[in-house]
Amino acid sequence: MFSRFQRWVVPVTLVLGCGPMLTGCRSGVPAQLLQRFEFQQPHMGTLFTITLYAPDESAARAASGAAFEKVAALDRMMTDYDPESELMQLCRKPSGQAVRVSDELFDVLQKSQRVAELSDGAFDVTVGPVVRLWRRARRTEMLPAPEALAHARAAVGWRKLKLDARSRTVTLTVPDMQLDLGGIAKGFAADKSLEVLKQHGISRALVAASGDIAVSEPPPGQRGWRVGIGKLGGEKEELARNILLNNAAVSTSGDAEQFVELAGKRYSHIVDPRTGVGLTERLQVSVIARRAVDTDSLATAVSVLGTERGLKLIEARPEVAALILRADEMHRSAVESSRLKKFNVGRAGQ
Ligand code: ADP
Ligand code: MG
């Protein structure tokens, strides 16, 4: 399901030819003979869209089919909605037991722990117990009971999750821990889809999973994929930007649809792991980096850290940029990191 912050993709004017400036001849098919294809499938509770350039329809179908299969396999592995997923089987193991997991699950957990460390615990995949309470709050329209929150918080904390890189084992060190990969799995899957497409000879592609977008090489004759970010739903578009991405990714967090309104307050589906409470500040954070696994998790982290600390985290990472939009009853404002200029190609609509 697409969010209210519709992201849109408009490849810039097609330039034909396969001269020395273009890289499209490498695959053996001249760039001007590649055609554009688009495919969509629902996965991970959202719609995945793959846009790619291929010599013909059968090549496009075979490659996108394999990429979607990869996403489906990662979904089966990482979902917390299916008790039989590898992730949920891991969470049922007795605390303190080192459990060998598949390479991909280990990789995504290792990446999660790195972002947890970088963000001082703002990004934290051990938030499962509190996320469950907030999901219930959304259904029942009642705030979680303070005792239930306190109990859940005792099982939250990224340092309670231990990874051993040599044995590729995972240990949940306290009882009742629940891992939740909702803030990183889509980005991970978008990156993996591009890898599968490449294995099928497709080097010019864009994979979008609602707020997470990863691209490989640009459409033939173009410098990048043009992607719109920072559009505030049905609001005026003055804060929106068009960015140009080439072998890069962008994620947007802070979806206005994913919230619960209780006692006159809006609580986001993103929680502050330190308090166990859904965020109440209206932020929309877009992060650009090389890989979607990073942009997805960093966008969630910056949402929790807030503008000032979040921007500091972004500026400290080479090759990472961010656009942060703040909205309150009175006004809206945009803050951008210094490296956003590298990608920015003007206000949306231009
Ligand atoms: P979206 O799913 O809209 O792209 P995010 O990437 O920000 O949004 O992920 C939000 C999801 O991540 C939540 O639904 C929840 O499953 C999980 N989550 C919530 N808070 C955190 C947090 N502080 N750190 C890591 N994951 C979180
Ligand atoms: Mg995220």
Overall mean pLDDT: 88
* Counted beta strands: 18
Alpha carbon gap, first and last residue: 27 Å
**Low-pLDDT stretches:** 1-25
Helical percentage: 25-40%
What small molecules are bound in this structure? adenosine-5'-diphosphate, magnesium ion
What's a concise summary of this model?
With 350 residues, the protein is of the alpha+beta class.
Description:
The protein has 7 helices and 18 strands. Helix 3 packs parallel to helix 7 and helix 6 packs across helix 7. It is globular, with a radius of gyration of 20 Å. The chain is α+β, with helices and mostly antiparallel strands and 350 residues long. The longest helix is centred in the last third of the chain and has 24 residues. The N terminus is likely disordered. The strands form 5 sheets. The protein has an 8-stranded antiparallel sheet, covered by helices on one side. It has a 3-stranded antiparallel sheet with strand order 3-5-4, with helices on one face. It has a 3-stranded antiparallel sheet with strand order 8-9-18, with no helix packed on it. The site of magnesium ion (MG) has 7 residues, from strand 10 and helix 7.
